[in-house]
């Protein structure tokens, strides 16, 4: 991501009036919406998405969402509902932290409060394709966690409308309102708020392209973020039992998301590698007869086929690259699962095509990319919860722990810390009568 962020942004002269990198462009957009509010947001929406909206058009409300439910094909609506149910069932089955506390025999109270976030911003990609499935993948676990309000932001089409399938999915998932804004400008609106229109949210979740992902990284600290789920990735580890047509189809499925998406095959079978390359060429011709499609550009830039000595080496490579999606298209996937170092989601066996996970298998499809699976995971109910530690001292527990705390504070050179505890010890604890310094202790260091 950093390589792309630092490259000169094509078209920057027209967009920003001077040459800029993608990261500089994103910073400029964020600053302009932070300072300029709604007019700046509308200006970027016109420039980048071609939609000339007025301030009164910013929101899609519940009525338009309900109407969208009527407009989508009933079979599609039923599929969206089925997907919502499957995603919800998966997230309800997840282990989540619960509030707890315990009281020790000396009266020390220790525990954790757990509460859902109050307001979350959910980015739903819409630049190349209206990813209503990503809306479900963000809004459903938020709801399971008990989040107070989920504000969705998604880029409008050139006529200013939001695709009905996105609105229908929003209605199905219980989302109250949708902001017609995309890209870094939408991230700015969610993070900084829009005066009189939108309060800043506490956390921004959801996937997006390079601009969205860079913007989320920039606003982190001002608000929380779920991670950096950027351009899609698939890495297929395949053995000679894999069907080359199926493997090629799964590589193309992720490549079609974005010219920045990546699709990689790792195998120890030279025969399979050649068969997949031939299948790819054939399928790409059918998918993109003009020869200028997204999948072709993605494969040219980031597509790779690696030939390894054996399957163990192939799996080791997969773990090192830590892809968003790993397919184990091998005879005995369970033999290898435990040896995968890192991956956002692991698909087991020949039938488990990645797009099934994109839509309705159940686990979340908002997953770390760009190697971030080494240290982070996909969206879960826990993404929407915060924990607060609970600490309560009795007189007895204070007498036991206080002297050690005082000693440690003085060793760190923090006299005020030491005195804060000592003053209570001198008074004999919360139950003691004396609020002032103990006789004879004044001036002691
Ligand atoms: N990792 C995951 O979990 C996951 C899940 C779903 C989708 N995705 C990824 O989400 C992405 C969706 O991308 P998309 O582009 O279709 O939609 P998007 O909604 O993420 O981005 C569209 C926005 O990009 C901005 N933009 C476009 N060109 C720009 C420029 N030159 N300068 C500044 N801003 C610009 C515009 O504001 C536009 O509204 C894909 O990369 C896809 O692979 C990832
Ligand atoms: N493959 C994407 C995650 O990288 C998710 C998605 C949504 N719709 C289709 N695919
Ligand atoms: Zn996909």
Automatic annotation (TrEMBL):
Gene3D superfamilies registered for this protein in UniProt: 1.20.5.1300, Nitrogenase molybdenum iron protein domain (3.40.50.1980)
Binding site for substrate: 232, 254, 257, 325, 358, 412, 417
UniProt-listed InterPro entries: Ald_DH/histidinol_DH, Histidinol_DH_CS, Histidinol_DH_monofunct, Hstdl_DH
Gene Ontology annotations of biological process type: L-histidine biosynthetic process
CDD domains: Histidinol_dh (cd06572)
Listed pathway(s): Amino-acid biosynthesis; L-histidine biosynthesis; L-histidine from 5-phospho-alpha-D-ribose 1-diphosphate: step 9/9
Necessary cofactors: Zn(2+)
GO molecular function, one term: NAD binding
Top enzyme category: oxidoreductase
EC number: 1.1.1.23
Pfam families cross-referenced by the UniProt entry: Histidinol_dh (PF00815)
Function (record text): Catalyzes the sequential NAD-dependent oxidations of L-histidinol to L-histidinaldehyde and then to L-histidine.
Protein name, per record: Histidinol dehydrogenase
Organism: Limnochorda pilosa
Organismal lineage: Bacteria, Bacillati, Bacillota, Limnochordia, Limnochordales
């Amino acid at each position: 991501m950093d390589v792309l962020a630092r490259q000169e942004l094509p078209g920057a002269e027209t967009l920003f009036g001077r040459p800029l990198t993608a990261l500089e462009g994103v910073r400029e957009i964020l600053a302009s919406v932070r300072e300029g509010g709604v007019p700046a947001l509308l200006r970027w929406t016109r420039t980048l998405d071609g939609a000339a909206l007025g301030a009164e058009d910013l929101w899609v409300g519940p009525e338009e969402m309900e109407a969208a439910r009527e407009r989508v094909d009933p079979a599609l609506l039923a599929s969206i509902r089925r997907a919502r149910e499957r995603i919800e069932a998966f997230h309800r089955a997840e282990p989540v932290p619960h509030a707890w506390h315990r009281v020790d025999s000396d009266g020390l109270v220790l525990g954790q409060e757990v509460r859902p976030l109050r307001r979350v911003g959910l980015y739903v990609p819409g630049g190349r394709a209206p990813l209503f499935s990503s809306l479900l993948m963000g809004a459903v676990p938020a709801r399971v966690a008990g989040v107070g309000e989920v504000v969705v932001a998604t880029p409008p089409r050139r006529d200013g409308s939001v695709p009905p399938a996105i609105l229908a999915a929003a209605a199905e998932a219980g989302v109250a309102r949708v902001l017609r804004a995309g890209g870094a400008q939408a991230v700015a609106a969610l993070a900084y708020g829009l005066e009189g229109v939108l309060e800043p949210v506490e956390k921004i979740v959801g996937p997006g392209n390079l601009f969205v992902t860079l913007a989320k990284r920039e606003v982190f600290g001002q608000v929380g973020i779920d991670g950096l789920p950027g351009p899609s990735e698939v890495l297929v580890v395949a053995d000679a039992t894999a069907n080359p047509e199926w493997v090629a189809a799964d590589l193309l499925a992720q490549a079609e998301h974005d010219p920045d998406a990546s699709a990689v095959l790792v195998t120890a079978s030279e025969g399979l590698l050649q068969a997949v390359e031939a299948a790819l060429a054939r399928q790409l011709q059918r998918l993109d007869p003009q020869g200028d499609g997204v999948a072709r550009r993605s494969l040219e830039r980031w597509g790779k086929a690696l030939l390894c000595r054996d399957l163990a080496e192939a799996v080791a490579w997969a773990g090192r690259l830590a892809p968003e999606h790993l397919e184990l298209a091998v005879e005995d996937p369970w033999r290898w699962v435990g040896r995968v170092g890192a991956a956002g989601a692991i698909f087991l066996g020949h039938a488990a095509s990645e797009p099934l996970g994109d839509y309705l298998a159940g686990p979340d499809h908002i997953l770390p990319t760009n190697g971030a699976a080494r240290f982070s995971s996909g969206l879960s109910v826990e993404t929407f919860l915060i924990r607060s530690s609970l600490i309560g001292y009795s007189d007895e527990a204070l007498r036991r722990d206080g002297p050690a705390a005082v000693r440690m504070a003085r060793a760190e050179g923090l006299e005020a810390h030491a005195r804060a505890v000592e003053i209570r010890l001198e008074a004999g604890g919360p139950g003691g009568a004396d609020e002032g310094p103990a006789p004879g202790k004044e001036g002691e260091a």
